[in-house]
Design a protein that fits this description.
Length: 379
Amino acid sequence: MPNIIVIADTYNPDKTSGAKLISDILKELTKKNKVILICPREHFLPNSNKKNLSIYNIYCGPIKSKNFLIRGFFEIFMSIVIWFCTKKYIKEFKPDLLICYSPSIFFNYFCKNLLKTAKCKSYLILRDIFPFWIFDIKKIDNFILKFFLINYFKTFCNNFDKIGVEAKKNIIFLRKIGIKKKVEHLPNWISTKDFQAKKKLNRSSYSFIFCGNIGIGQDITKLNNFINIIKNYSFIKFFVCGEGHDKHLLNIDHNLNNLKLEKAIRYKKLLMKMKHINFGIISLKEEIKTVNFPGKILTYLLTNTPILILSNKKNELTEFIETKKIGIRMADSDDFENILKKLIQIEKRVKKNNLDFKKILNKFFSITIAKKKILSDLS
């Protein structure tokens, strides 16, 4: 039975898509492997042990702070703290494989020391490609800081035997910036055991939801434009359900009955809420050159919810949504009523063929295929 160490900066009880991804993959990995999960925390949480799974929660200070200077300072030293808190257990555990889930990229010291000590295989699951998307949206312009982060990123990536990215275009991007390790396509994954059909929906009104992270990578301007359009339609309801750095930028008038701003909720509760929602919204900043498949796309597919992506340009994500006929792209110049008609047609098709979205999940976001790729060098 191989021994595996997983390091990630999110896990239960966090209400994030990353925590869901880690939870699902751990359930798969622990079927035939012993696993240690190491998770840096900004609050004190107890360690725990389950069958084949030990969880070490390491307090590292305000690593999720909205103040980027404070966050950056503690994230840089986070890796050192984690290593000195866990190296005793790692030496006793003798891992055969290290799996690192990024973000964050600031696990370099920990990963370097673990791999030097254990001499085991390694796999980097690279999701949004920080810091480059931050540069794209002009949040960091300082030349020295850019130089430091780019070199830190390259050093971090080159620790690993393999790197899995969520979009094929990102393989090309990593090659261009000089990452020499093996890079492969590793889409996000999800267990389909929670797949659910819709309850009978009210045909006198239609509802949209934007759920999950409301951070600087989301296009809040487009969301606000959408709000300005639909607030004049009394038969349209729009729910925003989540937390994030830019949540305060949403222009939601609390006096309007058809617009609701809600806090993030636990995953099971979100699935229950989705039974009564017609359509799910994705809105990502178009300046970002790398491609991100947000976790909310899996939640929408899992709940038979057609997708509206707010975007003026085509990329790997928008083309996937439209070619697989799971949703519609809406540009700024598009007529909302025409877009709504197209979404309703997709919804009607899904009602007739209730397993269409489940087939998409099994084919393109299979947790079994993801596990095989991650563990391929152990077999």
